[in-house]
Design goal:
DNA polymerase, domain 1; alpha/beta; about 230 residues; 2 domains; Rossmann fold; 10 helices; six-stranded parallel sheet
Length: about 230
């Protein structure tokens, strides 16, 4: 199935760059730096739990086109703080600025990321396709040492549409001068990454490190990036 592959496309967040670990490190720092324990937040775990629930919902709205980038950034921390009865807009702005400055600079990747990319980059042209914001993804790629593996990082902001819209996959294929039947997309979202790519004629590999149950028809499923060495 994968013998004729020439181009490999990766998602970034939750696939190579360990979003949860990096984000939680920054959020724990925020809890301490802004003394949230003395403002009514019981502990960093509570703060992280509440923020992640809100951020996940707002990102889902952003992906559906129901929330703008500006509103996503403006609303998530004030909303989280309000649930702890903290209504301080200046504080929310400071926290948001700290998060945007420090979270993308965290270097944590999923296990075997570098070894796997060392292997793949010798055999294939590698690209990133991400719904993340252009300036943030550039920082993540550089600080985690990923940028030298990839020919280009293609973001939804560049294309004007978000995965799973076929236009972003078509754009990426065109940028790489790649044929769909000789290309594979690897990502952690079965619908957005894998099924979206399959609809464009690409192969799709579902990265499912937590082995979450699903009923999607993916071409291949892996729980560790190291498995790619035996597939590709």
């Amino acid at each position: 199935m994968f013998k004729n592959i020439t181009h490999v496309f990766f998602d970034l967040d939750h696939t190579l760059w360990d979003f949860e670990t990096n984000s939680r490190e920054a959020l724990s720092e925020i809890f301490e730096k802004f003394d949230l324990g003395n403002r009514g937040v019981r502990g960093p775990i509570d703060f992280i739990r509440v923020y992640e629930k809100i951020n996940h919902r707002m990102w889902d709205e952003y992906r559906k086109g129901e929330r703008s980038k500006a509103r996503l950034r403006k609303d998530r921390f004030p909303t989280a703080l309000s649930l702890f009865e903290i209504k301080d807009n200046d504080l929310a702005i400071e926290i948001n600025e700290y998060y945007l400055e420090h979270s993308p600079r965290k270097p944590n990747l999923f296990d075997h990321a570098h070894n796997t990319l060392d292997y793949l980059s010798e055999k294939y042209k590698l690209y990133i396709i991400t719904n993340g914001f252009q300036e943030i993804q550039t920082i993540k790629m550089h600080n985690s040492g990923l940028d030298h593996y990839f020919e280009e990082t293609i973001t939804s902001e560049m294309v004007g549409v978000r995965k799973p819209d076929p236009k972003i996959f078509a754009y990426a294929l065109n940028r790489g001068n790649a044929r769909p039947d000789q290309s594979v997309m690897i990502g952690d979202d079965a619908d957005v990454d894998v099924v979206g790519a399959q609809k464009c004629g690409m192969k799709g590999i579902f990265f499912n490190p937590n082995e979450i149950g699903h009923e999607k028809e993916v071409d291949k499923e892996i729980s560790s990036l190291s498995e790619l060495k035996s597939i590709l």
